[in-house]
From TrEMBL:
EC number: 4.1.1.23
Classification via InterPro entries: Aldolase_TIM, OMPdecase_AS, OMPdecase_type-2, OMPdeCOase_dom, RibuloseP-bd_barrel
Species per Swiss-Prot/TrEMBL record: Rhodocyclus gracilis
Gene coding for it: pyrF
Protein name: Orotidine 5'-phosphate decarboxylase
Alphabetical keyword list: Decarboxylase, Lyase, Pyrimidine biosynthesis
């Protein structure tokens, strides 16, 4: 496997929110590209290669970096194939070749403080991620170890895109739903570093709008468009901030495997770029529409 150049750790590190805000502005993009590598779906030319996961993801990253505000590798897709070293190399490659592009490690960690400290080291030292997804179910002390890294993002699960999320997230807790309590705690009590964000699924635009009213301009990571069927227009109109930002709208499989059936990585990368550009442009269409006076549907939910 080709070893990428190491990032310059001597340079001052910009915060996750600073990097994200710059990417929103300079790339005119709210698109987050999810990296969920499945070797069974790779082009034929990568078959049997020990570095196939790194090479596939690198090809997708290099083809789409100027169209994305962030990349989101899902750790399980690497760990299941004993490819954690390839994940380390991939994140280093992104930081070196596409500086300023934040990398969100989608790990959904959630455990007591002493264990959470180790997960924070894993995310921020071993993998050098700019942000990590965290399950807040165990409360504030399970989140605080990540906040010891004041420049890194901590993205809390709030209203997830899966249907079963309602089993718990809609429970009444003292007159509000559990996902609303998480949003309020994040905005009012837990955001000591100013680097918190929330996961809110595109499959529930009314809940996106409700969370936006509770957290102000806090960034929202929004999975669920593309293969999961979330509606881009509803997502943007419900979740954008007053200046047309505030969202990381994630698409994974619809971009990664747009080149299905083609033999070469170059063809896959080209198809991924076409899909990413179409998705970014569709998102921007509705950002512009709202900026011209379209109602922000559900904003008073």
């Amino acid at each position: 496997m080709t070893t990428p150049l190491a990032p310059d750790h001597a340079a001052p590190r910009r915060t996750f929110i600073e990097q994200l805000s710059t990417a929103w502005a300079t790339r005119d993009s709210l698109l987050c590209v999810g990296l969920d590598p499945d070797p069974a779906r790779f082009p034929a030319e990568l078959a049997g290669r020990p570095d196939a996961i790194f090479e596939f993801c690198k090809g997708i990253v290099d083809a789409t970096a100027d169209l994305a505000c962030a990349f989101k590798p899902q750790i399980a897709y690497f760990a299941a194939h004993r490819a954690e070293e390839q994940l380390e190399a991939l994140i280093a490659h992104i930081h070196t070749r596409h500086p300023g592009t934040p990398v969100i490690l989608d790990a959904k960690r959630g455990d007591i403080g002493s264990t959470a400290e180790q997960y924070a080291i894993e995310a921020f030292e071993r993998f050098a991620a700019d942000a990590v997804t965290v399950n807040p179910y165990m409360g504030r002390d399970s989140v605080e170890p990540y906040l010891a890294w004041p420049e890194r993002g901590v993205i809390l699960l709030c209203r997830t895109s899966n249907a079963g999320g309602s089993d718990l997230q809609f429970l009444d807790v003292g007159g509000e739903r559990l996902f609303e309590r998480v949003a309020r705690l994040a905005a009012e009590q837990w955001n000591s570093t100013g680097q918190l964000a929330l996961v809110v699924g595109a499959t529930f635009p009314a809940e996106i709008a409700r969370v936006r009213t509770l957290v102000g301009d806090m960034p929202l990571l929004v999975p669920g468009i593309g293969a999961q069927g979330g509606d881009i227009e509803a997502t943007v109109l419900a979740g954008q901030t007053a200046v047309g930002g505030g969202l990381m709208i994630n698409s994974s499989r619809a971009i990664l495997y747009a080149g299905k059936g083609r033999a070469s990585l170059a063809e896959y990368a080209a198809a991924a770029r076409t899909a990413a550009q179409a998705t970014r442009d569709a998102i921007n269409q509705f950002r512009q529409l709202c900026g011209q006076g379209a109602p922000a549907t559900g904003a008073s939910a």
